[in-house]
Amino acid sequence: PNLEELSTLDLDLIIADTSRHSEIYEDLSKIAPTIVLNSIDSTYDEYIENFKTIAKAVGKENEATEKVEEIKEFLSEVSKLS
Question: Is the dihedral of CA 25, 26, 29, 35 positive or negative?
């Protein structure tokens, strides 16, 4: 990312990827609160954990929990069709 351009924005949160942004974490953290997640190479379970982490960071934990439950139910129903 263009750090100079990012620094001109009024950012509340930066979400970065471990494989792409860990080397510039310090620079990103100077611009806005930054969380680094393994997203590119993540498994489904890691993806869900990342989703929960982001939800917590933006104050949407309850909504995220509801969505995770919805997808669990959906996947359960789909697996019964196989």
Answer: positive
For residue 37, give the nearest of 26, 52, 27, 1 by alpha carbon: 52
DSSP structure string for 10-62: --S-EEEEHHHHGGGHHHHHHHS-EEEE--TT--HHHHHHHHHHHHHHTT-HH
40-63 per-residue burial string, b: 16 or more CB within 10 A, e: under 16: eeeeeeeebebbbebbeeeeeeee
Contact 73/66 with Cβ under 8 angstroms? no
The H or E element that residue 74 is part of is helix 61-81
Which of 19, 41, 26, 28 minimizes the C-alpha distance to 1?
A: 28
In tens, the pLDDT along 23-80 reads 899 999 999 999 999 888 889 999 999 999 999 999 999 999 999 999 999 999 999 9
